[in-house]
Amino acid sequence: NIKLQSKPLLQDIGRIFSNIIDIYEFSVTFLGLLEAAIEVADEGKQPAIGECFEEMAEVHVQCTLGIHHY
User: Fold this and answer.
1) Is the model's pTM score more than 0.90?
2) In angstroms, how far is the first alpha carbon of the chain from the final one?
3) Residue 10 C-alpha from the chain's centroid
4) Mapped to the 3 state alphabet, what secondary structure does 2-28 carry?
5) Would you say 56 and 33 are in contact if contact means Cβ atoms under 8 Å apart?
6) CB burial string 56-68: b at 16+ within 10 A, e below
7) What's the pLDDT score for residue 13?
8) 26-42 confidence digits (pLDDT tens)
9) Torsions phi, psi for 45 (to 5 deg)
10) 57 pLDDT above the threshold of 80
11) DSSP letter at 29?
12) Checking CA distances to 44, which of 10, 20, 21, 56 falls within 20 to 30 Å?
């Protein structure tokens, strides 16, 4: 059984939204990469969006390992 509280605790809310800025930044960056890939694609050809996923995966690994390039 799942017991629901009538009011969420402040710490629960903080935990839920603690990385919302990171998620937003990731989304904006990823969208930019996708838009750029679509823009440079030759007319009538599929954009090379696989590279966008690869680049974001590399960024994720670097962030996970604590490696930041400024």
Assistant:
1) no
2) 48
3) 25
4) CCCCCCCCHHHHHHHCCCHHHHHHHHH
5) yes
6) eeebeeeeeeeee
7) 83
8) 899 999 999 999 999 98
9) -110, 155
10) yes
11) H
12) 56
